[in-house]
Amino acid sequence: MPAISIKPLMPSDFNENNVSFSNVITNTEIGIKYCKVTYDTSTSNDKKLLVVVRGCTVKTFKKLDNKDKDGKIIKGKKDKYQIFMGLKDENFINMIEKFEKHLITQGVENSEKWFDENMEEEECTDMFKPTLTKHEKYGYAIGGILSNDFVCKSTTSDVPDVSNLELALEKNTVIDVCICINKLKLGVGKYSLGFEINQINIKSIGNSEQYESNSITPENFNKDKLVIGAIQQHEKGGKFCELLYDDKKLRIKLTDIVGRIFKFEKDDTVSYSMSIRLTDENLHNMIQSLDKTILTTLLANSKDYYGSKKTEKLLKAILKPLVSYNKADQEKIKKGEKPTYEPSIWIKIWHSDDKGFDGKIYNSGNNKAITNSEDVLNKDISISTIEFYSRHIWFGPKGTSINLTLNKCGVTYETPVYDMDDLDDLDTTMKKEEEEKEEESDSEVENSDDD
Q1: Which residues contact 51 (CB under 8 A, 6 or more apart)?
Q2: Same domain for 52 and 85?
């Protein structure tokens, strides 16, 4: 029997007067209240409120834990997935804004049925939880759960197989989405729209060069465009400031270099960082210029950043520069001697048990994410292109550190062969010193990775 074809609503055709709400339904087992949402038109017998959202960008996609309310795994239950997407469809954004205004009015009219007491418009406005999130810099976004009968289709030859959703819907993939708005959730002192995602059509694969227009190279770097922002208090504790270039977060792009990725384990935590040796003169000069600008700016404004005036000697003792030498070379530099090896910079890499490197490290030959971290650990990797950015300058009780974080890294498996007799020993030494740095500095509060 052929599948039933249902034509979803275009957001621009939405009419809030066609929306209906059922009586309040209470599920006593899990303690929730809701109304079913239906949409009535003269052109369709199907009363589901299905709407198409065009040109969404996948931000995160993950499988949810299949557990009951007691935390036990439910056997035989279908996997559930959650997706979070960036929005550019102005028609859908306008539709949701119009719908939510209608829900405030309906909240007042139905407040006794929905909330068990009379509510004014101001109270309903405070109670209503917005459907979309809005970021000052990145714009609108929406997150939701895939329905039980969810369908994924690909309209691009770049994604021929959609059987593995976590690979098919990797970060930055562009998709069209069919959303079913099916309920009005009624909580204690709050209410919101409930919806699920019925279908996704993949339009194009993730773009590894998404931020190229913002990134700079050592060749076009201009130190006069570098600015350090004002001190800020992080909501979870700690203080930080931003390192800006042309009024945007500093982003650096390098091509055709060699790096090494190391794994750091301490107690129950695991972290990853990449070491890049500053063999290129332009790159070395740029990083030195960054260090110098940061030092001079913090010194000139030390009372604002630290609460008290600092001398240059004291500031150098607490500020960890980007340029990193091993201990033997540090001693040589103190004596006025030339170091034996080039210094390195260290770039932090986001990693989790369930998502690995989250597609940030990929095979530049086929543009596919590298999922096995062991493939790239503790050995020289040939990097065709890498982009990283300055997350922040962090002020902790044990020092000030400059955080560089990986955005994307394209690796080619045709790795050149090197004479590593001396360099292996050097990398072991430098890894130990980087571990010491990690132990000396306080743990930085990790912001969500919206890049």
Answers
A1: 8, 9, 10, 11, 14, 92, 95, 178, 179, 181
A2: yes
pLDDT computed for residue 1 by the predictor: 38
CATH number assigned to the domain comprising residue 274? 2.40.50
Domain membership of residue 4 (yes or no) is no
Which residue reads 């949402």 in tokens?
Answer: 37
Nearest in space to 210 (alpha carbons), one of 138, 141, 156: 138
**Residue 325 amino acid letter:** Y
Residue 101 belongs to domain spanning: 11-204
d(CA 3, CA 247): 53
pLDDT at 300: 95
Does some domain include residue 447? no
Please give the Cα distance from 197 to 95 (Å, whole number). Answer: 17
Per residue in 336-371, pLDDT (tens digit) is: 888 888 899 999 998 887 778 888 898 887 778 888
Structural domain ending residue among the three candidates 148, 171, 204: 204
**Residue tagged 């201990």 (tokens):** 327
Backbone angles phi, psi at 161, to 5 degrees: -125, 125
Q: Are residues 142 and 259 both part of a single domain?
A: no
Q: What is the pLDDT of residue 308?
A: 92
- 158 & 295 share domain: no
The letter for the amino acid at 102 is H
Over the Cα atoms of the chain, what is R_g? 27
What SS3 state is found at 8? coil
Spacing of C-alpha 337 from chain mean position: 43
Are residue 339 and residue 407 in the same domain, yes or no?
Answer: yes
Confidence of residue 86 (pLDDT cuts 50, 70, 90): very high
For residues 199 and 52, is the Cβ–Cβ distance under 8 A?
no
Say if residue 26 is in the same domain as residue 87: yes
Q: What is the pTM of this model?
A: 0.54
- Domain-terminating residue out of 204, 239, 259: 204
| Same-domain pairing of 198 and 253 | no
pLDDT digits (tens, 9 = 90+) for 402-427: 999 998 899 986 544 334 344 445 45
98 and 230 in one domain?
no
